[in-house]
Every structure is written in structure tokens, then in C-alpha cells.
Amino acid sequence: MGTAGAEQLRQRLAQGLAARPVLREALRALGAGGFSFVLAGAGLLSAHVPLALAPVCVLPFGPAAVCAYLGAVAGYAVFWGLSAALEPVAAGFLMLAGSCLFRDLLPAQRRGFVPAAAGGIYALLGLIFVLQADGGIRAALLLALRLTLLVVSIRALCPAEEAARLRPYAAAVCLLAGLVRVELPFGVPLSVVGAAAVCLLVEDAQDALLIGAACGLVLDLGSLPSPPQTACFCLPLLVCRMADLRRTARAAAFAGLYFLCVLVWGGEHAGWTLGVLAGAVFSCLLPGFALPDARRDAPAAASTLVQTADVLQRMETKLSLSGQEAQTAPALIFDSAADDVCRSCVKHQQCWQERADDTCRLLSACAGTILRQGQANEGDLPAGFCAVCIREEAFRAAINRALRAQQSQLLALRRSEEAREISRALLGQLARFLRAAGQKRPAGGVPRYRLSLGVRAVGLRGDTLCGDCGTSFQCGVTQYVLLCDGMGTGSGAQSDAQEAISVLQSLLTLGFDAMDAAAMLNELYVLRGDGCFSTVDLLEMDLCTGEGALYKWGAAPSYLKKGGTVKKIGTASPPPGLGVGEEHRAERVGLSLQRGEQLVLTTDGIPEAACEQYLRACGPLSPRELAAGVVACASESEPDDRTAVIVQLDPASMQPHHTTRRARSMSKTGAEPHI
């Protein structure tokens, strides 16, 4: 069966089990029981280990966890005898009982809690057994090894999401350890057959050596064979891989070299040699495989991202090829009115056939006035036309109906063109993001600067609720500072500002370019069309060089202050959400804060003249003091919220100034923007 057939069969089985939840749970419980039964055979220095308890701890309490415990008990009884393995059996019962009794109190993220709780239970119970048997130092050391193995196996079987791909390999190692005590006819250990086959089936030489070393170590620790299996596996694998043999020749050479190692070291384990020979035969019959490697897969993934970016960019180019902008057509308006009113008039032939040129000339003369007004009023039609027309009022009403219909069509066309422009812009932004992700290099350099913020925010007429919000966050060596002023004042304005911060911070954290992130916020506002928006001040600063850029969109002017010199930054512009295209973009201003400059960001509640005058007159102040002074220079009667943010770069070696909560989340309420 090919790969496609196997995948199709897997999907059909998954669909069948999804439709039968009882059967799915039963198979899951049987699988957990069988897995724990095999793990019970694992040993360390010819003694049992609590490896079979790992599935009991990892699984949430239910039929699967109960079956896992019963399988572990059965395995310990078969492989070691219940009297010899009473310690893990009792510990497993306590773990299962605790999972049942406290399942509603267990934390949702149990990756760190479960190993700690299981380790504590096993340590206490094992210590009781050690003291009761008076085993001495050797028994205490063996207990410590068992405890370590239990914690490691639990962590390996329930890893973090980013390491979830390692879970199957951890389960395979545990199975190999459990199969050490399972013997085939002629004393052949099943684990040796599987280990030899896997080592020969792995296609990459380095991976094969690592797997061979791991398998040999598991076999050595589990049964203390003679000769040592780690050496007997690694040496033949090294020779076979260096010779670059085909699979059949590699299998024969591996089996022969393993036999030579046995002869050199000596030993009485003929069954192990037969097991290696059987594994070599199986490796010739089964298909090879390669372990996933992030280092090998990364270039292919990066190439896929770049290719996807190329496709999106071509789509953007095709959407850029638009036709001429639709405009109002006066001739169509008058033709529609004539069809509606004049066709049934007794003078139709006289006006539209005998004197058609005069009629068209007279109506064309008044078309400009009617289009500018948006409707035809009394007296707009030419006197020469009115002297002949006997249905002037009805004709004027028909013109207005046709004009409204055409305006509706033009509005729909403009909306369609606006949606096309937004789609084109989004394709370009996604293409640039994917291309940057595919070509991304590790960020180098150590930050030479750190950010020092001073923030002061006051609501309308001194209110404690301020509609201006902001935040500061770091991505790699890039520091971002955001200040947004929502439309209006109070809680509504604050909600708009926090929404803008949420969108921008999410996009910037993912790696979008600052200009593209601001453009996507604008497109969101345009598509939503509810009239709610927020101005944007976005500072992007490289902490290695002290240079960056300030992106302004609809925000109040900013200032760059150094001593008594003050430079105004930004020009008046409409806020985002009013349209799309090149004329609706954020303003970008490059700047540097290397030499102790202070960047002053303000909202429109602070008058420009008063702010600039204060900045020129005040002496050297800390960011916190300067922010308070800027807000204080505005009158309490100002009809808007007032916020000032002062940004300064200090050498990274300096001790940081005291930073208030408001400096971390620039809102009078002190609440972090929801992301």
C-alpha cells in the first residue's frame, strides 16, 4: 500500500472512530492498558522501575487511566512478581486515587504539576519501603534513580506544545525499555530485534548512530548483558555508515560486525546475536525512514514562504490593473427622464425628433448646475426648454429620480473599488510579511540603550477616566511605544484606543512592518464603517543603534527636545478609517535619540502653542517631570482628554529610573490594553 493509500485508510479509520465515541474510548483504554503492561517490563540494573506509572499520571482520570493502572499491575505481576514490585503497584494506586479525588482541583496546565505530585508520592512511599527493608545506601540510591526515571518519563510523555513532535520518540524509547524482558523462542529478546531493525532503517547516518547509542544504553541498563550493547551497536553502525553500503549489504555487515564484537568481548548471550540477525533481515523487508529535523526542514519552509509571497504579489499586481473611475453621465440622466415622461407626451416628436439638437443643447447647458447641486430645482431648466415643454415639473422630478439612481450605482461602484483596493493592499502586506519571515535572519547585537518613559494622563476637566491609551513593548532589539487617542472622550474613546492598540501590538509582535500594521488598522476601520476610530502615534526604536522612526496618523504634533531646542514633528492629517490608497497612509518620520534627545508625544487635548512654548522655556527635566509639566501647561477647560508621553534612551548600563504603572500602560485607568 502506497503513502496515499495509507493516508486514506487512516482518514477513514479516524472518521469511523469519530462516529463511534464508545468504541473510540474502548480502544483508547485498551491501548493504554497494553502500553503500561509492556512498560512494566522495563528494568534498571536488573531491578524493576516505575516506568509503567507514567501513563497513569499523564492520562486524565477515566477508563483509559484505570486500564493503564490495571495493565501496569498485570505487567509487574508477569515480569517481576507482585511481591517484588509492591512498591510501584502501591504508588500507582495512590496516584490514580489522587487523580480521581482531586480532578476538579487540578490546574489546566498540568505539565509541571503532575511530575512534581507523582514524584512526591513515589518518594514518600519508596522511603517507607527503604526504611522498612533497612536497605542502606544502595537501596536509597536505587530509589533516587527510580524517582528520577519516573519524573523524566512523565515529562517526556506530556511535553510542551512546541516539543509535542518528540512525544512519539519518547514513547518508542519507553517501549524498547519495556520489551527487554519479552523473549521470543531460542531466548531472543524482542527489544534487540526492534533495536537492530530501527538502527538499520534510519536513512541519515548521524541519526542512526544516535539511535544506536540510545538503544544500546537502554539494553545495557535494563538487563546488564555481556558484552555491552552500546558498544556492540555503535561500532558496527559507524563502520557500515562510513562505507556507505546499500541496505542489504549494510544489514549483512552490521550483523557480521556485531557477531565479531560478541566474540571479542565474550559472553553467553547467543539469543542476542540471533535477535540482531532477525532485525537485520526485517530491515531489508521494511521501508526506510528519516527523522524530522528542524535544521533540514527550515530551508524548505523558508522557500515555501518566499514562493507563497511571490504568488500573493502577482495577485496584488493583477488587482492593481483597474479601469477608469466611474463618473456621473448627464446624458443618461436626461435620456432616462425622457423615456419616463416624454414618451407619452403629445410633443414628443417635436422635442426629441424635429428639434432634438436644440433640446440636447439646452439640457447640456444646465447639466453642470444640476450635478453640482445633486438635484434639479425649480428654475434650473433653461427658459427655452421650459417654453416648449408642457410637463416641466414631471420632467424635473424624473431627472431627480434618475440622478438618485445613478448616484446609488456610482456609490456601489466606489464601494466595490474601495474593497478591491483593500484586497490588493492586504495581499501586498501579507506578501511582504511572508517574504520577510522566509528571509528572516537571527537578530544580532546586544542592546546598548534602554527605554525611559514618562507618562501623564488627565481626563476631560480633570476626570479620572481618560480616553487616551498606550503601551510599550519590546520585540527582540526593537522597542515600540504606542499612543492612541480614541474618538471623543471617556469610556467610548478609551475602548476605541484600546482596540487600536490591541490590533497594532498583535501585528507588530507577529513581525509585520510598522507601516503595514498601521495600514491594516485603517483597512479594518474602512471595512467596518461604523465611524469609530483612533489616532495613532507609533514609535519604533532600535535599542542597538538608538535610531528609529515615528509613524503618525491623525495624531497631534510631536516634538523632539534637546536642551532649549525644540523641533516640531508631524503635520495635520485625517485619522485612519476615512479611505484607502496612497493618500491615506501614515506619515513616517525618521529620528535618533542617541544623544539624549527627548521625544514628546501628545494628544489633541494639549494646545500646540502652549506646549511648544513650555518645552522651549523649561530646563532639563526627567521624562516623568516633563510629562507632568506638558499636561499642566494646558487649561483645565480644554474640551478633551490630555496625555503626554516622554521617551528617552539611556545607556543600558545605567540603573533604570523608577517606572510607574502608568509608564507601562499609558492610560489613566492603569489597565493594560487587552491583546
Model description:
There is one protein chain. The chain has 675 residues and is of the alpha+beta class. It folds into four domains: 11-176, no CATH class; 189-214 and 222-285, no CATH class; 298-441, no CATH class; 449-664, 4-Layer Sandwich (Phosphatase 2c, domain 1). The protein contains 24 helices and 14 strands. The chain has helices at residues 3-18, 21-39, 53-58, 63-79, 86-101, 113-133, 136-157, 167-178, 190-201, 205-223, 229-243, 247-265, 270-285, 294-320, 330-341, 348-354, 356-373, 383-388, 392-438, 490-510, 514-528, 608-617, 623-632, 661-664, and strands at 43-44, 47-48, 183-184, 188-189, 449-458, 468-475, 478-486, 534-542, 547-553, 558-562, 565-569, 587-592, 598-602, 642-651. It has a five-stranded antiparallel sheet with strand order 5-14-13-10-11. A hairpin with a 2-residue loop joins strand 6 and strand 7 (478-486). The relative contact order is 0.06.
